[in-house]
Automatic annotation (TrEMBL):
GO cellular component: cytoskeleton; nucleus
Protein name: Actin-related protein 6
CDD domains the record matches: ASKHA_NBD_Arp6
Origin species: Polypedilum vanderplanki (Sleeping chironomid midge)
Superkingdom in the source lineage: Eukaryota
Protein location: Cytoplasm, Cytoskeleton; Nucleus
Cross-referenced InterPro entries: Actin, ATPase_NBD
SMART domains, alphabetized: ACTIN
PANTHER family in the cross-refs: ACTIN
Length: 394
């Protein structure tokens, strides 16, 4: 088989690799600028070379879940294809993901860039939930692969609940929540800036703090009551040692009072922020977003599907995306969905070991699908019909 590259084009990070690779490379999908080195932009993984990570400014290619800055996206592609992951597209087929309900003009631009700028020989467009469906249905240890599943994709800008029935998305049942990883990081910045010190310019550090210190509460009221107690009765409170960019490259959590008097570290005390921030995924109304939470939206999406498919959908729920990494996600989602689902249905919620890269692995199964060749847009098709012709002339 010809070599095939799978590129999962996320708003936060790009996951790329040959389908024969064991795992993909994960590269930040942005350009960053630091106060200490104003003249030099850091593209993707180059941020590891930055000496001072305080006050890093992000220039993103995505706005509200869709590519709007093609100049930034093109620079990120150039960096990846020349340095991080050199690839010759003239003899390599490409699988690339796009957002759900992507705008036609963005689809056209994507096709034009890969055929005109990178001399691509053939490409197949899909979505991350589609690849998750391929991965899930092909890796379940069952006599027959499940015909239905629900993909909960907790992304950077949004969270989507996408039901699949017999390999096809039920478009009318897809639900979107305007809460994702970016909003959680921004909310944590606001809380810390209000309570302790101004960190509104510290997106990079606070995002790491969110990843290291936050978790999903299983009983919000009980955890909130515990957070009011003094240490050591308080089991929630932790100190987060901030990076100083010399001895400490990335911050870390430690129990309160661990630091010695001789330690010259700057620390922030984290208490109920640790679970109150991820709680927005379940209760967006807490900050004025008048929408359903993940569990309620999942019930809503499943009930919008044909009645005979619902038992199968409840039994095959998969949670992916960077924010699925929060500890307690699987237990909380199962508990909430179980409490709202009909009692005679089996509910099964799966959070894979690597939810951020889960969709990329689905590209391996897509490339081996008998219908894969038919889904390709070839260079000949593009030259004969143009971008609009190959995308919408059906």
């Amino acid at each position: 088989m010809d070599s095939v590259v799978c590129l999962d084009n996320g708003a936060c990070s790009i996951k790329i690799g040959y389908i024969t690779d064991e795992k993909p490379k994960v590269i930040p999908n942005c350009i960053m600028k630091a106060k200490s080195e104003k003249r030099r932009p850091f593209i993707g993984n180059q941020i590891e070379e930055c000496r001072d990570i305080s006050g890093i400014f992000y220039i993103l290619s995505f706005t509200k879940g869709y590519i709007t800055n093609w100049e930034v996206q093109k620079n990120v592609y150039d960096y990846i294809f020349s340095t991080e992951f050199p690839v010759n597209f003239s003899d390599t087929k490409l699988i690339i993901t796009e957002p759900l309900f992507n705008f036609p003009i963005i689809q056209e631009a994507m096709v034009e860039i890969f055929f005109e700028e990178y001399d691509c020989c053939a490409m197949a467009k899909t979505t991350a939930p589609d690849l998750c469906y391929y991965q899930y249905t092909n890796t379940q240890d069952l006599d027959e692969p499940p015909l239905c599943c629900v993909v909960i994709d907790v992304g950077y800008s949004f969270s989507h609940i996408v039901p699949f029935v017999k390999g096809k998305k039920v478009l009318s049942a897809i639900r979107r929540i305007d809460v994702g990883g970016k909003l959680l990081t921004n909310h944590l910045k606001e809380i810390i800036s209000y309570r302790y010190l101004n960190v509104m310019d510290e997106s990079y550090v606070i995002n790491q703090m969110k990843e290291d210190g936050c978790f999903i509460s299983q009983d919000f009221n009980s955890d909130m009551a515990n957070a009011k107690l003094k240490y050591p009765e308080n089991k929630i409170a932790r100190e987060y040692v901030l990076p100083d960019c010399t001895t400490i490259r990335r911050g870390y959590l430690q129990p309160p009072g661990t630091a010695k008097k001789t330690d010259d570290y700057q620390m922030l005390r984290l208490n109920n922020e640790r679970f109150a921030v991820p709680e927005l995924l379940f209760h967006p109304l807490d900050i004025g977003i008048d929408q359903m939470g993940l569990a309620e939206a999942t019930i809503h999406a499943i009930n919008a599907c044909p009645e005979e498919t619902r038992p199968h959908l409840f039994a095959n729920i998969i949670v992916v995306g960077g924010s699925a990494k929060f500890s307690g996600m699987q237990t909380r989602l199962y508990k909430d969905i179980r409490s709202m689902a009909p009692e005679f249905f089996t509910v099964n919620v799966t959070v894979p070991e690597e939810p951020q890269t889960y969709s990329w692995y689905g590209g391996q199964y897509l490339a081996n699908d008998p219908n894969f060749e038919q889904s390709l847009i070839t260079r000949q098709d593009y030259e004969e019909n143009g971008a609009r012709g190959v995308l919408f002339d059906e």
